[in-house]
Amino acid sequence: MSDKPDLRKYSSQVVDGVERSPGRAMLRAVGFTEEDFAKPQIGIASTWAMVTPCNMHIDKLAREAERGANAAGAKGVIFNTITISDGIANGTEGMKYSLVSREVIADSIETVAGCEGFDGLVTVGGCDKNMPGCLIGMARLNRPSIFVYGGTIRPGAGHTDIISVFEAVGQHARGDINEIQVKQIEAVAIPGPGSCGGMYTANTMASAIEALGMSLPGSSSQDAVGTDKTSDSFRAGQQVMELLKLDLKPRDIMTRKAFENAIRVVIALAGSTNAVLHLLAMAHAVDVELTLDDFAELGKVSPVVADLRPSGQYMMSELVAIGGIQPLMKRMLDAGMLHGDVMTVTGKTLAENLRDVADYVAGQDVILPFDQPIKKDSHLVVLRGNLAPDGAVAKITGKEGLRFAGTARVYHGEEGALAGILNGEVQAGDVIVIRYEGPKGGPGMREMLSPTSAVMGKGLGKEVALITDGRFSGGSHGFVVGHITPEAFEGGPIALIEDGDRIVIDAETRQITVEVAAAELARRKTTWLRPEARYKRGVLAKYAKTVSSASEGAVTDKYL
């Protein structure tokens, strides 16, 4: 009996034998030849859409991956899944669909590949939620798979990007710039294809996925437009055929050690708080035990060394120009910060992939030395206390300070908070509380990019804090705490806060507390009533019924 893996384990069930003649007839109509029926089939999941610049070019990358699969002796088959745009939807009711789209994408990839009998997968993503959605879908199927990142956008004129536009809205409200100046920034900030240009969620997740071992070396640090990204896509299509021969699957790569590597790279890069949410969900998909406490423990020994937006000065394209994250990972490996023995989609270990990687050129200051970090420990601070007994996640680089105490100014939802910031209701010393924006209560856990950008634009970045049971864009910065659990809709303590309550956030003691006696909070709880569900039909209603808490990754299949 041969010990070679069956390269056509799934596709043979769809196309082999006289009884599968109807299926072959259908496939001939979409371009299959007689020879193709004898080849392994590689599904190419494309997130192409014209709803956002992040994904507008991905159809071309998917076709390169298809060419690569075909050149390696397989049959590439392109199919689509959805994407949405956080940058367009932020601050609107539509943003409630954002995190939901991660589950829709994962479900759709699993559905198509499971139905069509693909033997392997390439997924191509370029925006916040479709990237972890791709990984979750591949992880559930556990067939040889590679992720391709669509690449970063180039800077707009004047070193602008999408966050420049969001913050211009706040500057306009403060009176610093006029409407014509806002329009001028708007007109140049997004010059073409690619994901948002700082170390926001897309570039954070691309880096995490590369560190996890699920994309080819260098994939996370390439411009969306250029030969590097075209080559990356082609090679990914080729490499899946090698993974089939090796019988190397996502669960062989996405191990506990690999997740630890991904977390430490995210911290080094000062990445988005959304990485916590998504890595928890991705680990759940492969049954790897991962909790908020793991982020806290790894954070104690992981420095922040990347001077990247939103809290820093450089954009992802400038990190690309000096070599991307591979030299950083080599430094981290040499310093004992990464597990070098983990397997990757190259068929080699991480240490083998990094063996010949050269260090950054002398004189660059995008990535700082470990002995001169921006912050000696993680910027992703897990907080607990009487305000968040099940945990919360803060993004604190230290530039905002490490402790904030102020009085609560409470809003039931993002819209009210944004209006309060822009109209001057929010004052220095306030802790803005935005509640009923959690996974169930929103539903959908909207990002608070519009309020946080308005805070920065109005010059209140060091004067106020913002806490929420919702979440933040990777572009948010300032003294912000999200993912507060239990959420308000579940009767968590954030539902009981009243205007004027004193709130203390301490990143050093990792505590978030409201200075209200336990007896008083208990009294308030007796009069609290759960709000009526905002959606009774459709995807948002289904999501609210099945989603787990933010501290568990906000997944929809945890309790099935």
Query: Strands of the biggest beta sheet: in what spatial order?
Result: 5-6-10-9-8-7-11-12
| Uncertain stretches | none
The oligomeric state of the chains shown is single chain
Based on secondary structure, the structural category is alpha/beta
Tally of individual domains: 2
The appropriate CATH architecture of the largest domain is 3-Layer(aba) Sandwich
* Fourth-level CATH superfamily of the largest domain: Response regulator
Helix content: 25-40%
Q: Calculate Rg over CA atoms.
A: 23 Å
Number of strands: 12
Report the β-strand fraction as a percent range.
5-15%
Number of helices: 21
Overall mean pLDDT stands at: 97
CATH topology of the largest domain: Rossmann fold
Question: Keywords, please?
Answer:
Glucose Oxidase, domain 1; 12 strands; 560 residues; alpha/beta; Rossmann fold
SSE topology:
Blueprint: H1 12-15, H2 21-29, E1 41-46, H3 58-71, E2 75-80, H4 86-89, H5 98-116, E3 120-125, H6 130-141, E4 145-149, H7 162-174, H8 179-188, H9 201-212, H10 227-246, H11 250-253, H12 256-268, H13 274-285, H14 292-299, H15 316-321, H16 326-334, H17 350-354, E5 380-383, E6 391-395, E7 403-411, H18 414-422, E8 430-434, H19 449-457, E9 465-468, E10 479-485, E11 502-506, E12 511-514, H20 518-527, H21 538-546
Parallel strand pairs: 1-2, 1-3, 3-4, 7-8, 8-9, 9-10
Antiparallel strand pairs: 5-6, 6-10, 7-11, 11-12
Structure in words:
The chain is an alpha/beta fold and 560 residues long. It has two domains: 12-154 and 192-354, Rossmann fold, CATH 3.40.50.2300; 380-552, 3-Layer(bba) Sandwich (Glucose Oxidase, domain 1). It has 21 helices and twelve strands. The chain has helices spanning 12-15, 21-29, 58-71, 86-89, 98-116, 130-141, 162-174, 179-188, 201-212, 227-246, 250-253, 256-268, 274-285, 292-299, 316-321, 326-334, 350-354, 414-422, 449-457, 518-527, 538-546; strands spanning 41-46, 75-80, 120-125, 145-149, 380-383, 391-395, 403-411, 430-434, 465-468, 479-485, 502-506, 511-514. The strands form two sheets. Strands 5-6-10-9-8-7-11-12 form an eight-stranded mixed β-sheet. Helix 9 packs antiparallel against helix 12 (256-268). The longest helix has 20 residues, at 227-246. The model has no long low-confidence stretch (mean pLDDT 97).
